[in-house]
Specification:
This protein is α/β, with parallel strands linked by helices. It contains 16 helices and 13 strands. 45% of the residues lie in helices and 17% in strands.
């Protein structure tokens, strides 16, 4: 049972319009009422749940004009008695209010402790709160959508369907083990195996979304590839709209990978401008070239750049052979100049996605971005997209337990594996997760959340 009261600033420290100080616990109202003097003269004990109250806050010898709002147990975020002060933004004001609360018996909250109390008090599941922190940390629209899906409980609901089916099968098995001659309509092996097979299939569909989830969370790893001086660095600069990579007429300018994050229409791309691939005796350049080649196999998307006004060389063809079976877009660059017929024929005969651009005139870049988006837009039959490694691991272990079950196993062994699978599934919502894991999760939250 939680019997202490915590306090923290719930907004970022710094100068701004508003700062919020949050108090949660059994003494929250008493502490707040001691500090707050409502303009209407009423005590906060008589406040209406969730309604803002205007008044003066005593901060030692100083006075601050602000708002107080009371959330009565159990209808608050934490499930406890909660009071929030809304005061003028600034570092000192909120800090002094926290100090006054501590003098009156509260203690400074740990990282994520308000959210942790919401979980411990049954106000939110663990996966939902993890979705909340993902929403806060989201950098792209696709991340935000995936995080909101988690926050709104879609993963928990999907997992609960599987849990309920397995639990029903387990209950029937255990009754049959304990009372084999006293209960009618006991499940047969065929019935149990069908439930397990269906549960495995649902888990497999969920787990399949992890690749899309990784792309959403980490960004689409996009490799800009080509021989020296075809305009790779110019292409990166044109995409992000600034001179990030060094561009010169000299071959081999880019010797190490230049990384840039770029968000287009809600999708995050991790752009990698690589060293031009060629035979080089320069040790440093060779290291950069090897890095570029290594990234071919891990890239989600490759922009293969060729110079439209130069005849294709063996270097171009060698690079193409290394990446032609990948998720590839052919970028025909320098179209502001006279085009080489042989290069033009190669472009015309290319059957995949292709685009003509001029990085010098910034032409074709918008169309390239549209093609890039179409090449990586994720499609899944599931309403859930897995982005959290903890969830992925739990679901994979649950699936593994169900895959171990065979029809010739005894009901005792089948029951044992089902219980292990249910234990893993319970880690999603937090039903069976350890205290160590809970503490680790909430330590990632900020103080005041």
């Amino acid at each position: 049972m939680i019997d202490d009261t915590i306090v923290a600033v719930a907004t970022p420290y710094g100068v701004g319009g508003i700062s919020i100080v949050r108090i949660s616990g059994p003494s929250a109202l008493k502490i707040a009422d001691d500090l707050f003097c409502a303009k209407n003269g009423k005590s906060l004990n008589k406040a209406i749940h969730g309604k803002l109250n205007y008044g003066t806050i005593k901060i030692g010898e100083i006075r601050e004009v602000g708002l107080a709002v009371v959330f009565f147990k159990p209808k608050s975020f934490t499930g406890e008695l909660v009071v929030e002060f809304q005061v003028h933004g600034g570092i000192l004001i909120a800090k002094k209010i926290v100090e006054e609360c501590i003098k009156r018996g509260a203690r400074l909250a740990d990282k994520g402790e308000f959210s942790k109390r919401a979980f411990l008090n049954g106000k939110a599941s663990l996966d939902s709160l993890e979705g909340m922190i993902d929403m806060i940390n989201a950098e792209s629209e696709s991340e935000l959508k995936a995080a909101f899906g988690l926050y709104s409980g879609t993963l928990k609901k999907t997992v609960e369907v599987i849990e309920n089916e397995l639990t029903e099968a387990l209950a029937g098995i255990e009754v049959g083990i304990d009372y084999p001659d006293e209960v009618d309509d006991l499940p047969t092996k065929d019935m149990v195996m069908e439930i397990i097979f269906n549960a495995r299939g649902k888990l497999e569909k969920l787990i399949e979304t992890k690749k899309l989830g990784k792309t959403i969370k980490d960004g689409v790893l996009t490799l800009i590839l080509g021989k020296p001086n075809v305009g790779k660095s110019s292409l990166l600069n044109a995409i992000i709209g600034e001179d990030r990579a060094i561009v010169t007429e000299h071959a081999g300018t880019t010797r190490d990978i230049v990384k840039e994050t770029f968000i287009y229409d809600g999708i995050k791309f991790q752009l990698l401008d690589t060293a031009g691939i060629r035979d080089s005796k320069d040790e440093i350049e060779s290291i950069g070239i090897n890095k570029a080649i290594e990234n071919i196999n891990i890239a989600d998307l490759i922009l293969f750049v060729i110079d439209s006004n130069q005849k294709l060389t063996n270097e171009d063809l060698k690079i193409y052979q290394q990446c032609n079976d990948k998720n590839l877009i052919l970028v025909f660059n320098k179209t502001d100049k006279l085009q080489n017929k042989q290069a033009g024929d190669f472009f015309d005969n290319f059957n995949g996605d292709k685009i003509k651009v001029s990085t010098y005139l910034a032409e074709g870049i918008d169309d390239l971005l549209k093609i890039m988006k179409s090449k990586v837009e994720g499609k899944t039959e599931s309403n859930v997209i897995l982005v959290n490694e903890r969830h992925i691991k739990a679901l994979e272990l649950a699936k593994s337990n169900l895959e171990k079950i065979r029809k010739d196993f005894s009901f005792d062994i089948i029951a044992f594996e089902i219980k292990k699978a249910l234990d893993e599934l319970g880690k999603i919502s937090g039903k069976t997760v350890s205290e160590e894991v809970i503490n680790k999760i909430f330590s990632k939250f900020c103080v005041g959340k």
